Amino acid sequence: MGIQAGGQRSQPRPAPDDAEARAYLEDYAALLEAVAFPSVVFDHRWDVVVANSAFHALFGGVAPHPTAMPGDNFLRFVLFHPDAATVLGEHEASWCLPMLAHFAAAVEQHGQDHELQSIRRDIAQDPIMEAAYRQGLPHWIRAVGSSATEHDGAVRPLLHPDPRWGADCRVVGETPKTLRDMGYSRLTLVLREARRPAAASRATRRPRRAASHLSVVRAASD
User: Using an 8 Å Cβ cutoff, are 173 and 152 in contact?
Assistant: First the structure.
C-alpha cells in the first residue's frame, strides 16, 4: 500500500476475527493499490479501513491534525480539518453538507455507536456547525433534493496537488457484496485530465488554508 506521512506504509485495519475475511481484505487492499485514482474503503463511522497510494497523494499536503486526518476518519477530515477546503473544492455545499446528511443517516441507524456519538458531540460544541446540522441541513435537502446527498455518480470540485489533474472528479461507489457484508463501503474519485490553459494558473486558483474555513461549517476546536 501507499506510503503515508512519516514514511509508514498503509495497512488494512483489522478485519473481523475470521481468517477468510482477513485474507479477502488483504487481497482487496492489493486490488485497491492497482487503481490509478484515489480509492478508499471505510466503515459506517467513516473510519478508513484501507486506502491506496493515489488517495494518500491527494491529501499528502494537509497539515497534521490530532483527530481529523483523511487516512484515519474521512468524515472528521471533511468536517473538522482546517486544510480540507484546500483539496475539496466548494467545500461546504459539495462535500460538508452531503457528508453531514450521511452522518445523520448513520446516527439514525447506529445511534449507540461510541465514535458516532463522539463526532456528534464535536458538532454540538461548535455553534455554527450545530446550526448547520440541525437547521441548515434539512433546509438544504429540501432545496436541492435528496439526490444531492448521494456520493455515487456525483461530480464534485477537487483541487489536486498534481497539475495534471483537472478541477473536479466523479465520485463512484463500488462496493462488492463481500465487502458490504463486512460492513464496509468503497468510494473512488475518478480524476479528469486538466485542460492545458488551466494548468498554468493552477497555483493561483488554489485556496489558502484558513483557521475557520466555512461560513456554515467550520473547524472544531482541538
Answer: yes
This prediction's pTM: 0.82
Cα dist. 183→48, 49, 60 in Å? Answer: 12, 11, 27
Provide the pLDDT for residue 95. 95
If DSSP states are collapsed to H, E and C, what string results for 72-90? CEHHHHHHHCCCHHHCECC
SS3 label, residue 52: coil
Residue 194, helix vs strand vs coil: coil
Comparing 27-41, 156-170, 185-199, 205-219, the range with the smallest average pLDDT is 205-219
Confirm if 108 and 120 have CB atoms less than 8 A apart: no
Contact of 85 with 219, CB cutoff 8 Å: no
Q: Are 68 and 76 in contact (CB under 8 A)?
A: yes
**CB-based contacts of 133-137 (< 8 A; 24+ apart in sequence):** 133/100, 133/104, 136/97, 136/216, 137/97, 137/100, 137/101, 137/104
Cα Rg of the chain, angstroms: 17
What does the pLDDT look like over 13-52, one tens digit per residue?
Answer: 555 568 888 899 999 999 999 999 999 999 999 999 999 9
19-205: CATH, from 2.60.40, 3.30.450, 3.40.50, 1.10.287: 3.30.450
Domain ranges of the chain: 19-205
What sections of the chain are H helices per DSSP?
A: 19-33, 53-58, 74-80, 97-109, 114-125, 127-131, 137-144, 177-181, 196-199, 202-205
Residue whose entry in the numeric block shows the C-alpha cell 464534485:
156
